[in-house]
Amino acid sequence: MSTIGLIGAGHIGSQLARLAVQHGYKVVISNSRGPETLSGLIAELGDGATAATAEDAAKAGDIVVVTVPLKNVPDVPVAPLAGKTVIDTNNYYPERDGRIAGLDSAETTTAGLLQSHLPDSKVVKVFNHIFAADLTTANQPSGTPGRRALAVYGDDADARATVSALVDEFGFDTVDGGPLAESWRSERDQPAYVKPFDKDQLTAALAQGKRDING
Q1: I need a labelling partner for 117 at 20 to 30 A (CA). Which of 10, 65, 73, 89 fits?
Q2: Model-level pTM greater than 0.90?
Q3: Looking at residue 81, what DSSP letter applies?
């Protein structure tokens, strides 16, 4: 793996681009406003970064990160992501995204929505329960005592392992959360959400999660 594609260049997307470049990856970044609006970020990141359309970022990435408002998931290109591992960082904000019945009724998860949109991709949920700024300030080398941990979910075990290795490389321990159906445990307002927990603390917080029906 040498190239990470990013569909979305907001707070989380730009931080992940910084981490990727710092660790020697090429990044191809897109947003909804067009590649020309990313010139400042590309200049900061240097030669390892390229601005592109969402379609081209999807094609270019060995792994592709989808980090867009949940309401924009239907706009994510499908065909170029077939067979690829896709990282989902999204959270549900009804005030921004509108009400989504499947989430309000607890019939699916935010990652489940993306997986349904990308039936031939291997969606892995991570990076949604950490403040964007912490991605480049709270990361630490592997083996550091008390190192912050992030939960990783996915229905494909190999994809989950690949992404877990990337998270470790970027500076965080991981907790294997299992399939996407369990990813609600690290969603907004759960005990694990945006808390600076180490691996043991995160494991305990995930177990304490309760799924409320908000509809």
Answers
A1: 10
A2: yes
A3: G
